[in-house]
Structure formats: structure tokens, C-alpha cells
Amino acid sequence: MSLKEKGFGQRMDRMPGWAFRGMSFLFSIRDRFFPVDSRLEELPIREGMTVADYGCGPGSYIPRASRKVGPKGTVFAIDVHELAIEAVQKRVQKGGLANVKPVLAAKDRAPLEDESVDLVWAFDMFHMVSQPTAFLREINRFAKSSALLFIDDGHQPRERTKAKILESGAWSIAEEKPEYLKCTPIK
Q1: Partner of 156 at 20 to 30 A CA spacing, among 123, 126, 135, 148?
Q2: Domain that holds residue 76
Q3: Tens-digit pLDDT profile for residues 71-98
Q4: Entry pTM
């Protein structure tokens, strides 16, 4: 039985600081050899958009997202962990990413305006959300009616991911790819 099938890391909401530091270290090695930010090339991010990386962690996707939306766009880097926000703030300062806004979220609440975001991605974190319905409804709240949500399985089976999305009543699955699910809001 794989870690994914055992539910490794599920329902944690917020990992301990030592675990976040370890994950960040591993991500820095991963990003050096296997740049994950290239995943954003598949997403329909355009100049001037407002996008959100929910569960941004240390910010692996943030520099590329910043370049894609350009100076007239905005990237919200959202996480529930203070260390994630600190890591993103360092990336913002080091890279001069003026269009990136780090956002510290509560467990199931992000301080964003209603219907203000064009596109959201939540990669490698959904398995850790203990209240998936509340989480997905919150994203629906700040997503525009024309928004798209891209979400991957993380460390859980695809069927569990799909069930959580559909049970939320907040999103429908528009497309399924091996890497992620593309969802549209139910408003």
C-alpha cells in the first residue's frame, strides 16, 4: 500500500514548523533539478489577471506566475503557515516581484475580496485540508464567476479528490488530466 493510499499527511491543515522547514529544503532541491513552476505553462494565465496560489508553501510557483501576469496583474500567495509567508516575502524582495501579495490565511478563510480572482491553483496540498468543503467554498467565494480552479491530488487517490470537490457543491469538474483537475465555480 502506497503512502497515497494510506492517507499520508492528510487532515493536518497546518504542519509543524520543523516539517515545513524540511519540506522547504526538499522543495529547494526539487526545484533546482525539476522546476515545477513549468506546470504553470499549461494554465491559461494571461497578462493583467489576478491569480492565487493557495497553499503556496515556500513559493516555488510565484516568480513564474509574477512574470506571466505582468505589472498590471496580481499574484496572491496564500498559505496558513507563517513560515510560508516569510519565505514568499523573501522571494518578493529578492526578485523585485512588486505584483505579488503574500496572504496569511486562517484555517478556512483567506482575507480576499469576494469575486476578485480570475484563476486559482492548489497544488500538492489538498490532501492536508481537514475541512475540504469549507476550503473549496472559500475559494469559490473569492473566485469570479468565470474563474478556474486547478487542483491536484497531492497524496490521496484521484477518486477521493473528485469526491471532495463534488461533495462541496462549490465546484464542478470541467476537465480531468493526469496532473490536475480543472474546475469551474458553481455560483
Answers
A1: 148
A2: 46-185
A3: 999 999 999 989 999 999 999 999 999 9
A4: 0.84
Q: Dihedral of CA 107/181/145/166: which sign?
A: negative
Quick: pLDDT tens for 109-153. Answer: 999 999 999 999 999 889 989 999 999 999 999 999 999 999 999
- For residue 138, what is the domain's CATH number? 3.40.50.150
Stretch 161-170: mean pLDDT: 98
CA distance 74 to 72: 7
Query: What is the residue type of 184?
Result: T
- Is 33 within a domain? no
Cα distances (Å, whole numbers) of residue 128 to 49, 92, 116, 147: 28, 26, 25, 23
Please give the full DSSP string across 94-144, using - where no structure is assigned: HHT-TTEEEEE-BTTB----TT-EEEEEE-S-GGG-S-HHHHHHHHHHHEE
Length of the chain: 187
Please count the CA atoms within 13 angstroms of the CA of 20 that sit on its side-chain side: 21
Evaluate whether residue 6 is within a structural domain: no
